[in-house]
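Quick one, T. Sequence first:
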Amino acid sequence: MMSTKLLENLGEGNPQFVRELKGRLNRRSVGIVLLLSAISQCVIVGGSSEQNCIAWSEDAGGYCQQYEMVIQWEIIFHILSFMLPLLLFAGGVYLLSSDLVKEQRRETLNFLRLSPRTSQNILLGKLLGVPVLLYLGVGLTIPLHLIGAIAAGVPLGWVFGFYSAIAALGTFLYMASLLNTLFVAKGQYQPVVSSVLAGWLGSSFVSFILYYFSWDENKFKWVGFKWFLWEDLGRNYHLGFSWLFISLFVGNYWIWQGLNRQFKNPQGTLLTKAQSYGVLASLQVWILGFFYPVMNQAHIEETLMPMMFGMSILTVGIFLLIIPAISPQRQTLLDWARYAHEDRRQGVKHSYSKWQDWIWGEKSPSVVAIAINLGIVAALWMPAILLCEGGFSALVTTGLALLMTLNLIWIYSAIAQSLYLIKFPKPGLLSMGMVMVTLSLPPLVFGLFFQTVSVNTTLWMLFVFGSPWFALTEASAMATFFSLLGQFAAMAALTLTLNHQLNRAGASHSKLLFAANPTQIAPKV
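Structure tokens:
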């Protein structure tokens, strides 16, 4: 009676969660979980126990008269600390992915989208309800893990910090698997691949924690680890766990935004332009935190330029994810180009101006938003660069290298956006494929013909991503000028091309037909 009332209350708050519970929490399934949990705990305790002799006979030769069973609690703690997260990561990702794949195959996912409940409510019900048997099995093993920790002398603060980090990473992997499944529709082996990948990432994460987070010495073994000016981060595991949890929490927030949008509107963009600014700023601040302690003591000519090359590689990787995440599909762009122009001609009032639409609108092209994101990168990194040791010329060289690197990223984004307007079965794949070719082909060709950046530095800096960090120290002023001029010319040409495509898309079909056959509208005599 009490459980029925509890289910009714839960059903009012989250019907999807109750539906998942009713479908999975039957007597047979719960009984199997209880049995497996009891057997596994007995096996672990038995395998981690040994007999020690406490009394020997006084006869010649001697033999043991009395044994004492000794349980090695630290071994039990280590086994469970590795096994339980791995089971949560790999098993939970498989269950969630396979459940969503079944929903897609049965074509019942659209019925969930049409539900009066919000997409957040439905997704939360999936996340909590689908792996409920797995949660039950792991929960039954937690008491043994806590007993092992206490008996082994592990502080409870360390244990709960470990739990918080595992919960944060598990949430991240679960949401990422759902998001991936929404993109890879009806993938036959997708749940297995996602599960294996989650298991590998999770085991690496747990191994990192167990090795570096030392509870007996109350410190983080990675002593040289710093993030900005937070030096105590490498001396206290409490701070280390806090930093780890906050980092994963921010990542979970942004991936939840994308998952919610993708579930609610599969034809829309993964992120809004405003969200992309937040994602980019969060990631860049996180990366800058690792570089800043070294940059604060670095000399520009000796250390900073190679370090910034690594930063640019990470940055272009982030933009390769952001560009498709905020680029509307071809039909959305065509509708925006056509009807936005018609509304302006008819004098319809909008809450956003034209430029605001380019900056914030979800249906407009992404090139202006990418330019703003690049401005955010420059605004975050330039103050840190100015703190480095070096003369005025070295600072100018570093600033030029950053400018040329960001220019190339914008060029890649403009190429991708132009290709989104081409009539092609999968323009997103075409645009990202062309960007990858533009990124990888020039260094291969130039490396084959020129071998080093000191040969023809103008072409290297113009076409090869990351080369300014090495070539500018050897390039002449004229080579630098022509490289920048070539980049700005390419940016202008791509801007004109994109404007032409949008103007052509915005024109009505009848206007295009009349322009091609003007005699059709000539008056009859």
